[in-house]
């Protein structure tokens, strides 16, 4: 009887959790669904009362308007190039820095680490003007490298890597590698990197999505339409007197689809990396 009561309580508890998670998932996905609905409707449906929640038949028509207004695929390519390069560089720099802060002792380590973390509380808008002058003096204005270079140093990435490496990489394993004659970089390449693959996947998702959705710096630096990222290009759709919300939502929807695909891909990599890392 006691076992049956415990089973019923446990089942009821799991049922409540599933119900809560289902509701939370629906609420999280609804903005994407509403964006899709607006992408299939005319502009007048944006302010309709009651709101329109069923898809229409203008998805292709609205997307054709986007293609006629901006270089959509060229801007998407620029965004992919920027996000991929920034993500790879951030993973490399952050993992090296995290490895140094986690496993090496040197003068001023804690002070330097705290100073890096303090930069996270500074609003990015405060550094916009000096950063603009630095990029301009370096001759990188209105170029993709000028957009990318400011994102290479990621304090959050260094913090995550430092915490993960300090807990996941055994000191005994590193000492054994040093006795075998391995250099510090070879230890990083052959031992640390395979262990921290889950952290790579997690940080990769964070960096890619953050850079993809960044607008202010890209809008400030880029002037040539050939160098526009997708965020800057989509902003040009609202520069007319008569704003076509259906066209804008269509552009936003198709610009979000690749991001969701990348997120799902890295999410699977994250799960498989946890299993692979635990086996190793």
Automatic annotation (TrEMBL):
The keyword Transmembrane helix applies. Residues 76-266 form the ABC transmembrane type-1 domain. It comes from the Bacteria. The chain crosses the membrane at residues 12-36, 76-99, 111-134, 146-165, 186-212, 245-266. It is a multi-pass membrane protein. It is found in: Cell membrane. SUPFAM superfamilies: MetI-like. Keywords: Cell membrane, Membrane, Transmembrane, Transmembrane helix, Transport. GO terms for cellular component: plasma membrane. GO terms for biological process: transmembrane transport. Belongs to the binding-protein-dependent transport system permease family. This is Sugar ABC transporter permease. It comes from Pradoshia eiseniae.
């Amino acid at each position: 009887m006691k076992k049956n009561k415990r089973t019923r309580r446990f089942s009821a508890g799991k049922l409540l959790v599933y119900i809560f998670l289902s509701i939370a998932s629906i609420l999280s996905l609804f903005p994407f669904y509403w964006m899709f609905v607006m992408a299939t409707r005319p502009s007048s449906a944006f302010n309709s009362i009651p709101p329109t929640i069923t898809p229409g038949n203008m998805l292709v028509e609205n997307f054709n308007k986007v293609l006629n207004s901006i270089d959509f695929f060229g801007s998407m390519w620029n965004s992919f190039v920027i996000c991929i390069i920034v993500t790879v560089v951030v993973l490399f720099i952050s993992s090296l820095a995290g490895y140094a802060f986690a496993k090496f002792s040197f003068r001023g380590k804690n002070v330097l680490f705290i100073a890096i973390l303090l930069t996270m509380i500074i609003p990015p808008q405060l550094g916009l003007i000096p950063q603009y002058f630095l990029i301009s003096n370096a001759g990188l204005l209105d170029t993709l490298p000028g957009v990318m270079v400011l994102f290479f140093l990621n304090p959050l990435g260094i913090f995550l890597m430092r915490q993960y490496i300090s807990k996941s990489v055994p000191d005994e394993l590193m000492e054994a590698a040093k006795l075998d004659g391995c250099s510090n970089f070879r230890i990083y390449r052959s031992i640390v990197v395979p262990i921290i693959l889950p952290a790579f996947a997690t940080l990769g998702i964070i960096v890619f999505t953050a850079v993809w959705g960044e607008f202010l710096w890209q809008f400030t630096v880029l002037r040539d339409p050939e160098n526009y990222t997708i965020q800057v290009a989509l902003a040009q759709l609202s520069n007319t007197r008569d704003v076509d919300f259906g066209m804008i939502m269509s552009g936003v929807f198709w610009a979000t689809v690749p991001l969701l695909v990348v997120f799902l891909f890295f999410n699977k990599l994250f799960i498989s990396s946890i299993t692979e890392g635990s086996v190793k």
